[in-house]
Structures are given as structure tokens and as C-alpha cells.
Design a protein that fits this description.
The chain is of the alpha/beta class. It is about 30% helix and about 15% strand. This is DUF934 domain-containing protein.
């Protein structure tokens, strides 16, 4: 099994993910991989049967995966949402805000550096998929 960084309470999904086209062509897959540029909205009619959606980050500069995560979480997807590829330690807190709950970076992540990154900010300024209450809402009700 790959060495994934998990934040889910349940066991990691180990079934190989099929491509989006492959998923749409077969009725029995429960894991799918979205490549950069593919439209996550194609999965919306199928969310109830998916246990894991893996979103590709081919380069750290490509932010389309953040949008895919936000679309899927806002549509009610509650399964494992995995960021895979060029995932940098300082991006993981923002990926979590968009709804990612497991990570498969191409390069190893130092656990202490990751924890420092996750602990860096106590408050958030915007609403997001993670449900954290923005600081302005805490201050002004």
C-alpha cells in the first residue's frame, strides 16, 4: 500500500482509482481519479456510490484541483477526497479547507513540518468546505 497522509477517521480506501472516462463507462467502480482539466461536475450524479475520489495535481502551480474539491464537497460528497501529485506541505492546510481529507504527495513530507504548517493559523477569514467559522463571524455574530 502507498504511504498516504490520512486525516480521515475511517480506514483508507485501497481500491485502485479508474479514470473519469473509465468510471463513466463501468457501473461497479467506487473510486475515480480526476485529472487536471477534467470537470468534477460529471461525477455529481454518481456521488452516492463513490468511496474515494482522487484529484491530480500535476504541478503545485495548478489550482484546478481546489475547485474540483470545493464543487464535490458543496454537492454533498462525504467520501474520501485525496489530493495526489505535486502536493507541497504548505498547500495542505488550504487543501483541507477545500475538502481534501487524504493526501498522496510525490515527495515525502516531514511530519514536524506538516504539523507546523497545520498549526500556523488559528482563525480563517472565509467560509469553505471544512465548515470552520470565519473570524469575522466569531467577532460580530
Amino acid at each position: 500500500m502507498a504511504d498516504f497522509l490520512y486525516y480521515r477517521d475511517d480506514a483508507p480506501h485501497e481500491e485502485p482509482a479508474v479514470t473519469l472516462d473509465g468510471f463513466l463507462d463501468q457501473a461497479n467502480a467506487s473510486a475515480v481519479r480526476i485529472e487536471a482539466g477534467e470537470d468534477a461536475r460529471a461525477l455529481l450524479p454518481h456521488l452516492e456510490r463513490l468511496r474515494m475520489i482522487e484529484v491530480s495535481f500535476p504541478t503545485f502551480k495548478d489550482g484546478r484541483g481546489y475547485s474540483a474539491a470545493q464543487i464535490l464537497r458543496e454537492a454533498g460528497y462525504d467520501g474520501e477526497l485525496r489530493a495526489q501529485g505535486d502536493v507541497l506541505v504548505d498547500q495542505i492546510p488550504f487543501m483541507r479547507r477545500c475538502g481534501f481529507d487524504s493526501f498522496s504527495p510525490e515527495t515525502p513530507v516531514d511530519p514536524a513540518t506538516l504539523q507546523a504548517s497545520l498549526d500556523r493559523y488559528d482563525q480563517v477569514y472565509q467560509r469553505a468546505a471544512d465548515g470552520a467559522v470565519p473570524v469575522w463571524k466569531l467577532r460580530h455574530g
